[in-house]
Amino acid sequence: MSQSEGARLFREAWITGVREHFPGEPKAGYVTPWDGTPEWERQAAGAVYEQVRQFLNVSGGHASRLTREQKSRFVATCWTAQMYRHFEEPKPGYVADWPELPKWQQETDADVFEAIEAAAS
Fold this sequence. Notes:
The chain is mostly helical.
């Protein structure tokens, strides 16, 4: 799968996760379809997809043994690095440490990891 296709997979998994885990009605930006996603966000999604894919590869398939929390933390950390890459001074919510993220976002990040994992199998 190309990085562009991986970025789309990331975004689709994110939207699915938000719709499942977000309490109430999510902000429109959380569920904007791919065609409406800003270029910086597409690039960030592609980079995180690639980091997860490489992580799965170098683990020799053993990353499947990680807990959902560990998977979620990995995605969140990769995303935070992208926020620093794309924004000189990102909003605090964009770079919050994993324990400070809302539960819905933690769960969604785990779903994203698992979607990439499933596609890589």
